[in-house]
Design a protein that fits this description.
It is a single chain. By secondary structure, the protein is of the alpha/beta class. Helix content is about 30%, strand content about 20%. Strands 7-6-5-9-8-10 form a 6-stranded parallel β-sheet. The chain has a 4-stranded mixed β-sheet with strand order 1-4-2-3.
Amino acid sequence: MLNKRDIKLIKSLRLKKHRLTNKLFVVEGKKSISEFIQSNFSLFKLFSIDQQYFNLESKSTQITESDLKRISFLTNPDDHLAIFWIPEKKIIDESKLLLGLDGINDPGNLGNIIRTCDWYNITDIICSNGSVDCFNPKVVQSAMGSLSRVNITYLDLKKYLSSKSFNKIGTFLNGESIFETKINFDKGILVFGNEANGISSKVENELKQKITIPRINSKNYPESLNLSNSVGIILSQLSIKF
């Protein structure tokens, strides 16, 4: 049975400050919850219309469809809502290519980027402090379970880059064409900037090379590509070079 305490906790987890205080976040839908359960993430509590689906009765609460609509962050809830513990920080694996994100604000973009990185076996994303929280419900939903496999680290990106000697490449409108560059991308970091303003000048100063996706259209529009689409295009091209 759903109680007031559960409702209050779940609704509070919409906000970052409460996620950090409680060290908990929400995952919705059968597919995503299944992938988090199968990962190293620890389940706190599951709320389910059909308890038999996951067979986790010790941590599962049977609820009605009406109950689910009261606690879900989705317009069309998918039978199950789970709360997971936010894990401790993991060590960044610098033996492989890293993805850096400088000042990313849009949760949908971050979720799609996480999912794209999972597809291309990028296991670590480094976000600048102030970027959107990866446990934001919209990020979790957009990532479709991939957050359970991709390690996200928040830090001072400029400071981190200045301490490293590996390949440091940034994406810019005026960089070298990704289709022509011969850079070795098997490890190092590939940095993408804020949706509106691109990579900040302080981070740009730490990068050794600039690359771009050349615009085929001869006119001056559109001004730019969607950020998550750009990540997909560049990782697709880089996968050919690996």
